[in-house]
Amino acid sequence: MFSLSRKDVTTLAIFSVIVLTMPIWLSPLGAAYPGLMQKFAIYAIFAIGFNILFGLTGYLSFGHAAFLGVGSYTAVWSFKLLSMDMIPALIFAVIFAGIFALFIGYFSLRRSGIYFSILTLAFAQMSYSLAYSVLTPITNGETGLLIARDDPRAIDALLGVNQTTSGMPTPSLLGFDLGGYGGFYICAVVSIAAFFLSQKIFASPFGMALRGIKSNQTRMKYTGFDTKPYMLTAFVISGMFAGLAGGLLAVTDPIAGAERMKWTESGNIVLMTILGGVGTLVGPVVGAWLIKYFENIFSAINVNMLNAFFDFLPEGMQAVMVTILSKFVGEGWHLTLGLMFVVIVVFLPGGLVEGTERLMRWLRRRSKERDEPTGQVASGRTGNE
Amino acid sequence: MSKAPPNVVLHVADVFKNFGGLKALSDIDLQIVEGQTHAIIGPNGAGKSTLLNVIIGQLPPTSGAVIFEGAMLTGLPPHKINQLGISRVFQTPEIFADLSVLYNVMAPAFARRDGAFRIDMFNAVQDQSDIREEAETLLREFGLSDRRDDHAGALSRGDKRRLELAMCLIQRPRLLLLDEPTAGMSRHDTNTTIDLLKAIKQRGMTIVIIEHDMHVVFSLADQISVLAQGRFIASGLPQEVKDDPRVKEAYLGVPAE
């Protein structure tokens, strides 16, 4: 049940090492603070789950942020009503997001292609308005759902766990505080588990059936597969991953707001998956990290930093460079993201993962050519010789 | 013709199909006997495709019924019809172009073993050695072994057809439906496909073949039914049908004397 092919074990090991050593290799990139690394891990989970639907079945959901939001709200309610422990919060987040996905998926999957996408978008926008205004008693509307000192927390009260220290109670895991690096490592471990699960699904007969649906639904049906329940299962699973990610967002910062369900958030997850490589195991993770990195790093750059950076240029040039580049950083970081997206989709249609694979193949071919004694001498020398 | 033999696999009983005022099929009665290859031929527009769609439940007949081993096929979704034991080959091969050739053949075997829907997330496809071996044996027989790991979409048209046949056969169907299996093929591919179908026939497979290439039909068929303007104008052994003046008329437009 827990076995993997040798290739998958290697991938999982490398993935685990990369995730767990984030604090080391991200520090030269200026991103090694827990708050951002938690986001890397959490959005990786979100993207991995989204990829199980979009990557395997080819059904493009434009409403997955709704499940993320449901996960967050559920987790915060669990903090309020049951316990500040993250375990019940995450379990309920996954269950509620799954139920929600079952409902939305049941109706959306009656159509395919663009109509399916529009239906999911419509449901997600409805959920957003519900959270933002209609369901204010549950979601606390614009302000967002917060925990309070005098929440009941039935389980905590029962067990006599009382965080009566000053200030707000904070989420914990079996009594351990989840602030800072603790929170990051929890998210990292959960993201590794999510990655493992997606590897299992990719290699399983279930995953093969989903790929068959993407490849040729007519053949699937005439081969005896009932495609509807397969797609619905994939939809619910990916919704549960989103709920898990939403729950973890609440664990690292116990607040849930409606803006998490907005359509731009749904769009982001689509961008992440496409940027990294739809249908590949690691692509969505790479995409998620890249977008979250740019969002946090580029948006923090301001004109003064640019001025300092281009200090070495003559004054006129410096002003020109800074004026142009300042449009692409800070508030305008979406411009950078947009450009990056266009370049990748146009030149690397399979995303970054396929781009890398193509580069590797090219390098291998080149080195083989170089080894041929009679072949032409390779003209350009590469640095790693 | 003799009385209904006991081993009739498929019975198309008194089927009529109208599209508005157009009588696409009239008074169609067809019995497919186990182990036989039954060809349905006819000029373009005779109603061959309509009949096929009625047989596989895609089109409900206006009246009459299609019975497969005691089960009514009318109105059943395609996957249920397949699960009953009918596999189908399309005019243009329907394969999983993005999957490897091996997976193309393995997937139908899972549908046979696990039914129309089963969530199996924790076993690996690679580890199902029985299905894998079966698929590899079949690929060897079909001369596709060396293409095993290629994307099926990269195969030639003839190879795609062979692959589609392998996908059907791994399901061990009770009835194989072939819709113009050599349409658009070169002479060479047509001949290799005929040889392949002959080999499949030899295994005792019951086959219904819709075709208008006479070379294919007379190479394979045990029984031939000729469709013209939505009716069977002749039915019987190949030689009888060949000599039937009405058939000549329908095909060549020469009036029967």
Strand order of the largest sheet of chain A: 1-4
The interface involving the most residues is between: A-B, 31 and 38 residues
Instruction: From the alpha carbons, calculate the radius of gyration of chain A and give it in angstroms.
Output: 23 Å
Structural class of chain B: alpha/beta
Task: Give the strand line-up of the largest sheet of chain B.
Answer: 6-7-8-3-9-10
What proportion of the residues of chain A form beta strands (DSSP E)?
A: under 5%
Secondary-structure element sequence of chain B?
A: EEEHEEHEHHHEHEHEEHH
CATH class of the largest domain in chain B: Alpha Beta
- Compute the CA-based radius of gyration of chain B: 19 Å
Amount of helix of chain B: 25-40%
Please tell me the CATH architecture of chain A by its name: Orthogonal Bundle
Q: Count of DSSP helices of chain B?
A: 9
CATH A-level architecture of the largest domain in chain B: 3-Layer(aba) Sandwich
Q: What's the total number of strands of chain A?
A: 4
Question: What name does the CATH topology of the largest domain in chain B carry?
Answer: Rossmann fold
What is the mean pLDDT of chain B? 87
Write down the overall geometry of chain A: globular
Task: Please state the average pLDDT score of chain A.
Answer: 85
Spans of chain B of 5+ residues with little confidence (pLDDT < 50)? none
Oligomer: heterodimer
SSE string of chain A, helix = H, strand = E?
A: HHHHHHHEHEEHHHHEHHHHHH
